[in-house]
Records
---
Amino acid sequence: MAYIPIQGFISSFRLLDILDIALVAFFLYKLFLLLRNTRAVALIKGLAFLGIITVISRALNLHVVNWLLQQGMTVILVALPVVFQPELRRALEHIGRGRLFRSDHMISKEEMEHMLDEIIPLTESLSKTRTGALIVFEREVGLNEIIDTGVPIDGIVSKELLGNIFIPNTPLHDGAVVIRENRIMAAGCLLPLTMERSLSTELGTRHRSAIGISEKSDAVVVVVSEETGAISYTYGGHIYRHLSGEGLRKVLNDFFSKQPQGLANILKWRSAK
């Protein structure tokens, strides 16, 4: 009995149907890449959970629960454009700039080496003079909202330029620098503070800002302490302190390496600490 419908489905299947399915799968995959490692993932999980509960309540004839969930879902669907505004804007920007069909944040090995050759001596110099610094390296999750809070620069990474930005008592000194690929996009940027209350009292606003942005994105943030000169980095809401120049080079190299072992090296390096 089941063989006939399947046979009919196969006989009516066209090449255009394959193209149709492939296009939908492609755009869903691109949408997944845009939303990956953003707060949208948690919201989508919450919506999926509410959807499952709604179906179960309907199957069990829980009329009151089902009615409440349906009304709640209606309100949520109306509010979605507001909640997902940053993600929707970023998706439209990708489409408008023709970036939907290519991978973002690709940096060549030569560009990465040049960037590290500028960043590492700078952080070592700032550490010796106890000059505070906050450098955010954008990765897959876009930081346009953060860049918009600062002063646009869009210049090649150089220790001279960064050194001038972080001169004490200058307008841009206390803000963050955002680096995309091997370019300084903006300086004097404002970062969200972490709400974590269990952090050491030794960590000031600069460190808490670095942790805060790493909680909301997959950015890597380098911090130089103004009080102690210690070099630290944050990632995934965690801070790793007291790095040497070479230690920082290894961490950044692994984060931006195109090799699959890059992340494994980072985890191994953390466990060794």
---
Amino acid sequence: MSTTTRALDEQLLEALAGQAITDIGAALNGALVMIGDHLGLWQAMTDGAPTNPTMLAERTGVPSAYLHEWMAAQAASGYLEYDEASDMFTLSPEQAMVFADANSPAYMVGGYHIVSSVYRDYPRIATAMKEGHGFGWHEHDPELFLGTEQFFRPGYRTSLTTEWIPAMDGMEEKLRHGAKVADVGCGHGASSTLMASAYPASTFHGFDYHESSIIRAVQAAEEEGVSGNTEFAVARAKDFPGTDYDLICFFDCLHDMGDPLGALEHARAALADDGAVLLVEPFAKDRLAENMNPIGRVFYAASTVICTPSSLSQEVATGLGAQAGEARLHEIATAAGFTRFRRATETPVNLILELRP
């Protein structure tokens, strides 16, 4: 069989090598972002005043020799502003929202913890890939669970009760008067506690197969003062207890499940006659070529090392992937017995879908 090899394009090679250098720098600096958070460096600069390593050392107790290199790395990354004339660094309001304010909708530090967990786990994930078996959520380094909560909480805090639920037909009114809600795959309970705080007349039941996450969810509910209208239990998506739910939620988790069809079939059976499913999934177009962008890059990468291995570790092992797209999700929902399916709203990173019997 003959093959044809095109001539080497030096410009393409240079561009590709340059992209690799950019990505190596980003990978290295990810650790520095987390170090800055751990040592309080970002928070020490939130006043927006120009500062230098000596001044920051006085505020934080970290030696200025370290801070000079750390601040230079952040400026080279575009994460701090640097003024050569004064030799001073500044954390802009926009940079503070991304790196210093955990309640900001743009807070990204949790994403770096997710990346950190992948680097810790990658030898075992590579073995799972080579041997053709899954790698369960519970098998990951705990850094993943921390990062997932931190990464998704800002978006939920910003949009869940202010945009997503109001976009569902009549659901906010039900929740205000008192409804029964299941949060399937609730993880550390960030979504459950946010809803419980916003809708105190309703009751929220969080379910996750990962026991350590459920323990953390219970603690979070106590910290947020919503223990009175929340409860959490270890349960799978295909057999969580209870019936007549007014709302059943799947937040960024259906694609991680081995049997997403079975999970939606169980949800359909557990709903009240006029209930609904709120399905929140990573934003994706239906064609692969349409997802060749920074968001698609993040989610395809995460899907390779987190989402798909999780699915393949469970029964059925569908391997839906984090970029399934609306058409594929519609197909599964229809097969599960839902007759109404619509995109209630969207964000740059999520599809917010409403399913009705």
